[in-house]
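User: Predict the full complex structure for these chains.
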Amino acid sequence: LAKTTQPISMDSYEGQEVNITCSHNNIATNDYITWYQQFPSQGPRFIIQGYKTKVTNEVASLFIPADRKSSTLSLPRVSLSDTAVYYCLGGPRGYALNFGKGTSLLVTP
Amino acid sequence: ETGVTQSPTHLIKTRGQQVTLRCSSQSGHNTVSWYQQALGQGPQFIFQYYREEENGRGNFPPRFSGLQFPNYSSELNVNALELDDSALYLCASSGWNSNTEAFFGQGTRLTVV
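Assistant: Here is the predicted structure of the two-chain assembly.
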């Protein structure tokens, strides 16, 4: 499982775009990059997953450069309800998820 | 709602006791994983079950054990509880090696006193 490193915390104002970068230097060929969101006292919730280039869904975009040693989660126009912990994970699909400490995002008015 | 339900939601036990936590996986999912999340930390992988067999284990002692039933629901058993076992225990279900994400339950908050 890839070891990931991401900022411990970030602050943003409502309506701004937030980019959270994660480094994963030892990512393996069959590893995917997956991001989860977690609110206090709840289980993590899947946000987005990708292998390379760019993936976009209704809530976020994920950018993975060609060398795959890092990735960036982009949250467009955040709201107060986006305040949560965001985890970047690297590993093969369907196997154990390797959570780090995540990035605690605080969105303020 | 993820379709993954865990029971109980909260539990208080005394050091040395044993505890059983339960998880019902999402319909169609045959793989269940258990995680321990201490306060302020990310979830740590305990073990995974696929078709009633343990299919991977994290760095947890043997007093952490589990079961998966034919309907793919699962139990996590912890013997000889220690104070450090106090945590949120999360269950996640997924299809085996699938291209879908894991769906987590709300967790069971275990407090050991």
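The interface with chain A takes residues 2, 4, 31, 33, 35, 40-45, 48, 56, 58, 88, 90, 92, 94-99, 101-107, 109 of chain B (CB under 8 Å).
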